[in-house]
Every structure is written in C-alpha cells, then in structure tokens.
Amino acid sequence: MKLAALLALLPCMALAQDIRPSRDYLAPELRAMQDDPSRHPGWLWVDEGEALWARGAPSCASCHGDIARMAGVATRYPAVAPDGALLNLEGRIERCRTDHQHQPAFGYESEALLSLTAAIAARSRGMPVNVTTTGPAAPFLDAGRRFYETRQGQLNLACGQCHNENAGRRLRGDLISNGLGTGYPAYRLEWNTLGSLHRRLRACSLGVRATQFPLGSPEYLALELYLASRANGLPVEAPGLRR
Amino acid sequence: MAEITARITLPTSARRGEVVTVRVLVRHPMERAVDAPGLTPLPRRILHSFRVTYAGAEVFRAALSPGITANPYVEFTTVAVETGAMVFEWEEDGGTIYRREAQLTVA
C-alpha cells in the first residue's frame, strides 16, 4: 500500500525536479578551478575586458564610471530594450558601442566583445539571476520555451529530453547539466578559449544534427531568455569553466 | 618589450625562508602549426621557454612544447629570500620576448 502511494508520487517528483546550478554538475577538480581565479584562464579575458573598459573616447568608463558599478547588471539580461528588441549582454554592449561610442560594432564572438562581456558578467558572479519574463518579454519567453520543447534535428530531440529528463546522467563521459547559460561567456577546455553561450548553443544544435542558427540570431536570443528564466534565483557563474 | 596578458598570483608578503607558491597563467594561442590538405597553413608559434628570476638568480625554467594547451598554466614554489621583483620571461617562436614582473615583500 505504502509502496503504491510512493510509486504514484514518483512522476510528480520527477516533474518537480529542481534545477541545479551548473557548477553542481562539474567534476570536483573543474569546480575548484572555476572558483580559483589564479588557475582559471577565463580571468585573462576579464583582465583584458577591464582594460578595454577604460579605452577609447568616450570609453565605457566615461559614462558608466568604474566597472565595479556593473555589479548585478548581467543578472538582468537578456532584457527587452525600449525599442522592443530583445538584447543579451553582448547585444547591449554592441548597441552602446554603435549608438554612444559611434564606433563600428565589435562583432559577435570577437575577442573584444568576449572580453568586455566577461568583465561585466564577472561583476555579477555569485548573484542570483533575475530576468524579467513578463510584459514585453513574455512573447520572447514563449518563443524560447517553444524552441526548448520542440523536438528537432535528425536525432529528433528536444532540449528538455536531455537537460530536464536526463540531467545528472552521463553522456559521452560527461554529466548532463540542466542546460543553464549562467556560466557564459565560459572558458571551454574543448575550445581552448573563451566563448559565448550562442557558440555553445550552436554546438548543441550540431549535437542533435539540427539547424545551427547564427550567433546572435533571434532563435538563440529567445532561447537564452528562456534558459535564464529557468535559472532565475541561481547564481551567475561567469566566467565559467566547462569541459 | 612586447605586451602580454598574464595573471601572476603570489603572496604579497612572506617571511624570510618561507616557501611561496607562484601561479602563472598566460594568454597565448600556443599555435602548434597547421599543415594539412585543405587548411590554410600556419607556422608554429608557441611560447617555447619560460624562466623566472628572483633575487638575482634563476628560480624556475621550463621548456614548453607544442603539445601544451593554449593559455598555459604553470605553478611552482620558491623560497622567499628578500624583498624584490620576480621577473617572468616568455620567449616566443620568432624571438619575441615577453616580460612581466611581480613584487614579493619579505618581512
């Protein structure tokens, strides 16, 4: 009788399965390395980003002051700009660059943009993700959720089939995480460099043999928002360290 | 002297005779050469040697090979003998030398 009650409860437990921060899925050695700025190569980009922060006329610092004032900013992105566009942190920086600095955009995945993004995101390290999912963000969130829940590619897999249903189990020698973007831009050992979340998402798409969308595409931006909404309340880990 | 991004971590102060741990991360692609059909050939460009001098003596030296990852990390220990600069030098293929310094205060 008791067993039957327990069995009946099991599916609910699976549904209510909590989403754990990405660091919980890292191997202990990698987690220690991620926590130690003296051994984590991602901080090289943070250093370069902080140097860029003060460079140029006007520089980022001319308007925003010390980069320490960027604390908490990364927790709120992606966010909807007043003109209705969904911007992630990279998009926000590029917009500042073209609209306020009157300079050509750095370009997605350029070293300069990665460095600045890492330096700004690092100021929110450990703070809980807090993206807005209502109001103008709602349609983007829906699009992101649809993307996440839709089976795609030759392998016919939806994101959640790995990152919800099989999180914590092994895939090709690695643990499947809940698929949060909190650690990005992250230093990925496979890349030997720092890379953006969209670069990682392209690798995911390739993994299920689905269409790879361009970096900064509306599909990935909406997905980024949905991933951030799943991570609401969990700590920012950027710059992360990943396999 | 060419510029290089590096993170050098060592205690700001140490007692005389104390063993200090020095951690060095350096930003470098460590290009081990591309030479294959269909790919744009690239010559080898790595940091092939790394040496550290402190208190007038060489305290650490390493020969780095093409199998070493980009942005290499090196950790070593040395004995704190006097207050002064620890000088870190990397030599790249082609002869460029990068130099960074870090201060160690010995009480």
Keywords:
heterodimer; A: 243 residues; mainly alpha; Cytochrome Bc1 Complex, Chain D, domain 2; 3-stranded mixed β-sheet; two-stranded antiparallel sheet; 7% strand; globular; B: 107 residues; mainly beta; 5-stranded mixed β-sheet; 3-stranded antiparallel β-sheet
In words, what does this structure look like?
The complex is a heterodimer of chains A (243) and B (107). With 243 residues, chain A is mainly alpha-helical. Chain A has a single domain, classed as Cytochrome c-like domain (Cytochrome Bc1 Complex, Chain D, domain 2, Orthogonal Bundle), CATH 1.10.760.10. Chain A has helices spanning 2-15, 28-34, 42-53, 60-64, 89-99, 111-122, 138-149, 159-163, 197-207, 218-230; strands at residues 79-80, 86-87, 170-171, 174-175, 186-188, 193-195, 240-242. Chain A has a three-stranded mixed β-sheet with strand order 6-5-7. The longest helix of chain A is centred in the first third of the chain and has 14 residues, at 2-15. Chain A is globular, with a radius of gyration of 19 Å. Mean pLDDT of chain A is 92; it is low at 6-16. Chain B has a domain at 1-30 and 84-107. The two termini of chain B are 31 Å apart. Chain A binds chain B through residues 37-41, 43-44, 47-48, 192-193, and chain B through 5-7, 9, 23, 25-27, 29, 69-71, 73, 75.
